[in-house]
Amino acid sequence: MSTQQPAVQIPAQLVKELRERTNAGFSDCRAALVEANGNIEKAIEILRKRGQAAAAKKAQREASEGLVGNYIHAGGKIGVLVELNCESDFVARTEAFQQLSHDIAMHIAALDPRYVRREEVTPDMLEKEREIYRAQALASGKPEPVVEKIVSGKMEKFYEENCLYEQHYIKDESVTIGEMISQAVANLGENISIRRFVRFKVGEVSGGPSVVDSFSVLSIPPSAML
């Protein structure tokens, strides 16, 4: 007597909803829903993990193509340029890649990160933040072992607030920018990474950590701008 479980029936509307929420392909969405027994939240988590695995495999491949995305906030008071890299000009010209660069630029305009990745935070800055958190915890009368846990937790929060890859996306706080990049890698099949960005605000002096390795000032002849 067969003990095989009946196949899970996945409504087309559920697959459509998952595609809209993740931008993953039809077959990937359906497979994730089958694995999750029709639970869309579990399916999203499955797709995220697959995207992260795919991103890890492609991370060593050179990403020297791409584009400079931009976003100007309403009223023209805040502007962002972000360099998003991929492996081929073909992918750089796709609507999905261009939309990703726009979304990231918009996010930077809203949340004003200081670094692209946590690895870019200088040792001096890390030590300064640790000293502040440690002093705060000690002043509250916490014992030493608890103080160290508090400092560790606050450092993770510091990364989340200041490092672009670790920030939660402004339009969907259930995903980080890093997870968005991983999903794009899975969907587009190429290594994708954010190289650098610069954020301008009227009346604000630039030059902070957010523009480390920033865009060079190019000398463009007037004829090239016509």
What does this structure look like?
With 226 residues, this protein is α+β, with helices and mostly antiparallel strands. It contains 8 helices and 5 strands. The strands form 2 sheets. A 3-stranded antiparallel sheet has the order 1-2-5. A hairpin with a 2-residue loop joins strand 3 and strand 4. Helix 2 packs across helix 3.
Q: What composes the largest sheet?
A: 3 strands, antiparallel
Are there runs of 5+ residues with pLDDT below 50, and where? Answer: 1-6, 207-214, 216-226
Beta-strand content = 5-15%
User: Count of DSSP helices?
Assistant: 8
Helices and strands: which structural class?
alpha+beta
Shape: globular
Helical proportion? Answer: 40-55%
How is the secondary structure organized here?
Blueprint: H1 12-22, H2 26-35, H3 40-58, E1 65-72, E2 78-86, H4 89-92, H5 95-111, H6 123-139, H7 144-162, E3 168-169, E4 172-176, H8 177-188, E5 193-201
Antiparallel strand pairs: 1-2, 2-5, 3-4
Q: What's this, in brief?
A:
It contains eight helices and five strands; from the N terminus they run αααββααααββαβ. It is an alpha+beta fold and 226 residues long.
List keywords for this structure.
alpha+beta, disordered C terminus, two-stranded antiparallel sheet, 3-stranded antiparallel beta sheet, disordered N terminus, 226 residues
